[in-house]
Amino acid sequence: MKQRYTMLWIIPAMSMACFLVWDILPFPVAAAEPSIAANKDNDNGALFAAFVSVLRNPRCMNCHSTGDFPRQGDDGHRHTMNVRRGPSGFGVTAEKCNTCHQDHNLAGPHLPPGAPGWRLPPPSMPMIWQGLTDAQICVSIKDPKQNRGRNLDQLVEHLTEDKLLLWAWNPGEGRTPIPMPHDEFSAKVKAWQAAGAPCPAM
Ligand code: HEC
Ligand code: HEC
After folding, report:
1. CA 127 to ligand 2 center in whole angstroms
2. Mean pLDDT estimate for the chain
3. How much is the pLDDT for 42?
4. Half-sphere exposure of 159 (CA within 13 A, CB side)
5. What is the mean pLDDT of the segment spanning 66-94?
6. From ligand 1's centre to the CA of 113, what distance in Å?
7. In this structure, are residues 113 and 172 in contact, taking their beta carbons and an 8 Å threshold?
8. Cα 78 from Cα 93, distance rounded (Å)
9. How far is the C-alpha of 70 from the C-alpha of 128, rounded, in Å?
10. Could you give the C-alpha distances from 196 to 63, 145, 167, 186, 192, in angstroms and in order?
11. Which residues line ligand 1 (CB under 6 A)?
């Protein structure tokens, strides 16, 4: 019996010894083995780069560009009829987005496309990606101060399920949909999320 208790002391004693040896080792042992955190940094932004082309597509950029107005077409020209962002993104009093845009596409060329909640982000948080590098877009969409308080799960849900965003795969007559299939886009966004949403180096 007595011997067993003695044995129990050996365990803490040995771990103490390990710590001491660890401390006096002349080289950093931890750095020799790649940690999960290091893998994140080494991703080089490849997981984000795999789907950033979607965010840069004109279907998305027409609502996420510079200027207090939406844009139109594959060339991103300024929205006709002097349509503007307005105080909350829904347009100015005389020209609210929903005066013309319904919750669905109107059939026929050059008729207004539509989806529920058609609008621009508000001027206080305009969510502009035009002119940003991939790294800056990545940081910006993850930043709760720039994405309306979304955490990563909420951001991924928005990216993969929001109706306004899904519209870009079915944008109505005469407009080119996002070329990457939606399933593929969702899978890539989720792979990025699973890896801890690493961004390309700034
Ligand atoms: C007076 C009517 C009208 C108003 C108001 C209006 N739009 Fe439009 N919008 C249109 C029409 C018509 C088109 C389609 C033009 C075409 O296909 O040639 C269009 C196209 C667009 C497109 C282009 C989609 C693409 O990818 O090519 C976006 C984005 C857009 N509108 C956003 C908005 C937003 C946001 C608002 C409110 C701030 C708004 N519009 C207000 C009539 C309007
Ligand atoms: C008709 C305009 C419109 C189109 C088209 C549009 N968005 Fe948005 N987007 C918005 C608005 C408005 C918000 C803000 C919604 C909110 O905060 O709830 C937003 C928010 C976002 C956000 C979260 C905020 C941020 O910057 O992190 C992301 C990500 C996003 N959009 C991605 C896209 C992508 C990707 C596409 C194309 C597949 C797209 N959007 C197409 C209007 C649009």
Report:
1. 8
2. 86
3. 58
4. 26
5. 96
6. 7
7. yes
8. 19
9. 11
10. 27, 19, 27, 16, 7
11. 58-59, 62-63, 70, 72-73, 79, 81, 83, 85, 91, 95, 97, 99-101, 110-113, 119-120, 174-175
